[in-house]
Amino acid sequence: MTNITMRIILDTNILITSFRFKADIFSGGHDLHILSGTIGELKRISKGKSKDAMAAKLALKIIAIKNIEILPSHGKVDEALIIYGKEGYCIATQDKVLRAKLKKGNIKFAYIRQKKYLEIA
After folding, report:
1. In the 8-state DSSP scheme, what is residue 49?
2. Predicted confidence (pLDDT) per residue in 32-44, tens digit
């Protein structure tokens, strides 16, 4: 069986959730991307003092260390994710509302399952 590399865009909440659950979403061998709007969201969240702020700071460091490609986005991040999803990207998100929209649009998505690993639907 061949291992197919998938182009996956990471959403803000999956990054924060992955650090909260200590789930490794970076080692699947997939081609990972992030939207410029998601970087902006992480920067805003990282300025706080909550657990999410610490997770956002760590996410920004990992994105830089792993040299994850930043794709341009304009307007609302969720709308941009749907557009990229229609272009063939898999969208990694924990957002149930967004996942329902992706499912309705027949767009591949991934989420953290059992607080451990990335499941692709």
Report:
1. S
2. 999 999 999 999 9
